[in-house]
Structures are given as C-alpha cells and as structure tokens.
Amino acid sequence: MPKKINAVSKSARHKKRKPRTEVSTESDSEPEGREEDNHCVEKKLNTADESKPITDGEISATFSKVYQHMVTTEFSNDIELLRSADDFNDTSIPILINALQQGTSLFTIEEQRRVVLASLKNDKKQES
C-alpha cells in the first residue's frame, strides 16, 4: 500500500523565518525623512544667524574640532598617563594627535552634521 502524502501545509512554527542576524539598510528607529529634518534644522539655525548654509567641508572641520575636544575631555586621565610615561617625548605628540583625529573618519557626513548642528544649538542656548 503506497504511503499517503500529507497535504497539510507546514505549521506556523516550521515556516521559514528571516534570520535574526540579517542586516537591513533601513532602520526602524530612525524616521524616513531624517535627512530632510537635518536640512530644516540647518535652515532654522542659518536664518537666525542670517548666514549662508554650512557646507560639508565646514561641517567636517567643525566636527573635527568638536570631536577632538570631547575625546580629550573624556579621556583626559588616560592622556595624562600617556604624557607622564617615560617614553613620551616631543615626537609622541604628533602621533597622539593623529590617533585622535583618525576617530573622525568613523562617522558619516550625516552623523557629523547632526553633531555639529546640536553643538551649535547648544552653544546658542548657553549664550541666551
């Protein structure tokens, strides 16, 4: 007697699921119009200053300054330990500065823009 083929579909438990480790380019945590939001915030800041829009080069330069200030503030104890080491000399300073500057390359221009705009906004609040 031939075996009867089960025509019932797979249960929900056995259906193929997307793997949890699959990486998507879309982020559920960020709104879709975030780039437009950044430009709106930038326009609001610029209209208050009555100045020209900030270019990507200016964003990168300002971000580098803000980033280096934050890093040196956060890691001041570690930097002081490096400076007090026996093998720290005048040639070590450019190496340390270069190492700190390399951290800026980890951020996209959109992330840099958000940090700079937040920093500008924070500076304006402190002035008021």
UniProtKB/TrEMBL annotation:
Biased composition (Acidic residues): 25-35
GO biological process entries: ribosomal large subunit assembly
Subcellular location: Nucleus, Nucleolus
Superkingdom field: Eukaryota
Region (Disordered): 1-56
Stated role: Required for efficient biogenesis of the 60S ribosomal subunit.
Name this polypeptide is given: Ribosome assembly protein 3
Organism, as annotated: Golovinomyces cichoracearum
Taxonomic lineage: Eukaryota, Fungi, Dikarya, Ascomycota, Pezizomycotina
